[in-house]
Amino acid sequence: MSENPKFDGRRALLKKAAGLSAAIAAAGMVATQSAKAAGMAKSAVQYQDTPKDGHRCDGCALYIPGASATAKGTCKAVAGSIDPAGWCTLWSPKS
Ligand code: SF4
User: Fold this and answer.
1) What is the pLDDT of residue 12?
2) What are phi and psi of 35, to 5 degrees?
3) Sign of the C-alpha dihedral, residues 12, 14, 17, 18?
4) Which segments in the chain show pLDDT lower than 70?
5) Cα-trace Rg, the chain
6) Tell me, what's the pLDDT at 38?
7) What is the pLDDT of residue 24?
8) Which residues contact ligand 1 via a Cβ below 6 A?
9) Could you tell me the distance, in angstroms and rounded to a whole number, from the CA of residue 60 to the centre of ligand 1?
């Protein structure tokens, strides 16, 4: 502790601010990771269980197939089970 009470007050305030910043950054990282793990909501990408203009999830680069060709799979970008015949606005062809 210094002999200057104003200096001690500022030092304590700076420590609190640094701690608060670290906590906010950590919370932001957790939120970002949760969003990635969960994927986007189907409603946000206009997902439908049917093809659109001949485009289907099983022809999309983001599709992860299920146990069989007709079983529902998952998606790298969209949350929940995904119909192989489905479609959403993120559709992009397999290369
Ligand atoms: S990005 Fe859309 S079109 Fe592609 S697999 Fe996922 S849900 Fe289907």
Assistant:
1) 64
2) -65, -40
3) negative
4) 1-7, 9-37
5) 24
6) 78
7) 40
8) 45, 47, 57, 60, 62-63, 75, 77-78, 82, 86-88, 90-91
9) 6
Please state whether 39 falls in left (phi above 0), alpha (psi between -120 and 50) or beta: left
Residue 16 has a pLDDT of: 60
- Mutate which of 78, 83, 87, 92 for ligand 1? The one with the most ligand atoms within 8 Å of its CB, which is 78
Tell me the whole-structure pTM to 2 decimals: 0.65
Q: Residue 20: what pLDDT?
A: 41
Check residue 31 and give its pLDDT.
47
For ligand 1, atom 4, the nearest C-alpha belongs to 91
Position in ligand 1 atom list of the atom nearest CA 45: 2
- Nearest residue (by CA) to ligand 1, atom 5, is 63
Two structure tokens written together for 41: 């909501």
